[in-house]
Amino acid sequence: MKYLRVAEGWQISFLEADCKTPLKRKLCFGSPDKIMELARKGGADLTSASRCDLENGISIGKGGVWLNLTAVQYGTLR
Questions:
Q1: What is the rounded distance in angstroms from the CA atom of residue 67 to the CA atom of residue 42?
Q2: Which parts of 1-78 fold into alpha helices (H)?
């Protein structure tokens, strides 16, 4: 999952496992808290260090996080 701060809020995009091919599904959130929630629900590793990295990315307005999606979650994105 990649995220970027835009005028409307936070633009969220997703990549295939090859890290090159974008999925068509994009999301837009009004709050950075939603990014944290999506990361948690998507099975992202949110240990202390990785959570700090995610929070830092949010503070600078761009970043990414690896999700560990279930087959159902992945199917919903596709």
A1: 5
A2: 32-41, 48-60, 71-77
